[in-house]
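Handout for the seminar on molecular recognition.
Each group receives one record of this type.
Step one: identify the two inputs.
Step two: read the structure output and locate the region that could contact nicotinamide-adenine-dinucleotide.
Step three: write two sentences on what you found, then compare them with the reference statements printed after the record.
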Amino acid sequence: MALLYHEINGLIKNVKKWSKRKKVATGVANFPAKSYIIPEPMGVTLVIGTWNYPYQLSLVPAITSLAAGNTVILKPSELPAKTSQVMAQIINDNFPSNYFHVVEGGVKETTELLEHPFNKIFFTGSIPVGKIIYQAAAKHLTPVTLELGGKSPTFVLSDTDIKMTAKRIVWAKFLNAGQTCIAPDYILVDQSIEAPFLEALKNEIGCNYKNKADIEENYLRIIYNKNFDRLSNLIRTGQVYFGGNLNRDNRFIEPTILQNVTFEYEVMKEEIFGPILPILSFTNLEEAIQTVKERPKPLSCYIYSKNRKTINKLLNELSFGGGAVNDSVMHLSNTNLPFGGVGLSGMGSYHGKAGFDTFTHYKSILDKPFWFEGNIKYAPYTKLKKAIIKWAY
Ligand code: NAD
């Protein structure tokens, strides 16, 4: 919730400034006009949320859209049913329904909503459903922002600070029991430090979740049985280095590390979205980079190293939504950094000013007085006129 309040405060502080007309240069060809850009609301917007951070991932885009002057229909995920009900109650009781309204429901209700000609659709969720949304939007040529997922790699290079790297990765991976779209999905570690790195990961998990009470209070469960079963299967088909304990009754999956993993393993064929961390080692960084390049562009990528040259090489060669150097997940908390995917991990971005832009149409105006009209653009097109036009542009 802190991030949600942070976004709201940022919008309150900046919305007046962002909503102002912006003057831009005109150029000699249009003398004596002036030029400016008017930020304009898009109109009626549809925000479709997902379940893993149900308030944040529904309300941040919804509130950003309102701040940009739009009206919003919010369709939260139906999976955390009580959360969806609470949002519907608070919003529908306090806002006029033609301004901000929650429609609850699942596939059927979303499909019905998508038949309407919205002015903008903002969707957070899986890649397959993202494609359904994009197709439905295309019928009305509605612009969309798609915040999707994918497998986010983490490079751990031989010169890194092993203990600190393990600490930051363990926090980011097992937060929300791995049900975070930008969690490190898998690790590519330099083979020369694989053994001490695995040891450091194990120690760090031990520090975070020392006993049963820590697990009870600070560690989450898997959202529903279907995902629990999918994740259990991924553990079964891998080689467990640490963890692996499961309890279907309360959908508990222990923080789990898989070792000696290759891209052929089940766990590497889909986004994990759970507390399982596969470790792949490499001896040749070029080859490791190539394997990532051959796969869909990830939502995030993380690089742990002290070598600026190698860090820049990875940053320049790999395409991904966003990420961090020597940290994981936390780039999301800086509202100055546009947040979004690229390729299969999504299109468009939000947070802070990027969010305002996402929900705004920028109307461009050339504004001319009557007192002067150069005759150059009118026929007959003499050599001199052509030369002047060429010069003016
Ligand atoms: P999902 O795609 O199944 O559901 C998201 C929303 O779509 C829900 O509101 C749901 O009701 C609706 N929906 C589901 N099926 C639909 C259909 N056939 N037609 C119309 N609407 C439909 O999401 P999920 O799989 O539960 O969520 C996990 C995915 O979301 C992961 O891939 C994760 O990476 C991604 N995600 C991305 C971000 C981000 O910011 N990029 C954040 C969180 C989660």
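Reference statements: The domain at 2-148+343-366 is CATH 3.40.605.10 (Aldehyde Dehydrogenase; Chain A, domain 1). The radius of gyration is 25 Å.
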